[in-house]
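Box 3.1 A note on notation
Throughout this textbook, protein chains are presented in two layers. The first layer is the amino acid sequence; the second is a token string describing backbone geometry. Keep the layers aligned when reading.
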Amino acid sequence: MNNAEIARRFYRLSALMEIRGDDPFRLRSYRNAAEAIEVWPTPLKEIAEKEGVAGLQEIPGVGKAIAGKVMDLLNRGTFDAWERLIAETPETVLDLTELPGIGPKTAALLHQRFKVSSLPELKAFVAGGGLEMVDGIGARTAEKIKETLEL
């Protein structure tokens, strides 16, 4: 797993946490770590092999807990907090936020209230007229979402 892949996992973790309404300070710490990891010149795998957790903690924004998660990612390809999170909120919910008009709050509402957690589920929901029931989605936004889904 390279630095970009590790950073992507932490970005996705923070986005899922935002959708769930988790602590904004925690999700910001994951974003900060992801930003630093993404541009770090030395491969984290190399740092982990030579210096372990202590070496990873030299990266700005990477504390002991995040360094441990990086070690797990490098060794197992995942970490426990990620597995717990996606068991409760499927990673496919993030795909919803890629549509115009659907941000983290709307994605959270679609998932929690209407059990929509993927693009195919959203297509079925929209086809059944479900968007009219969603607070915060006006006619213009609903039309944009429908057009995007048809593409």
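Residues 3-20 form the longest helix (18 residues). The two ends are 33 Å apart (CA to CA).
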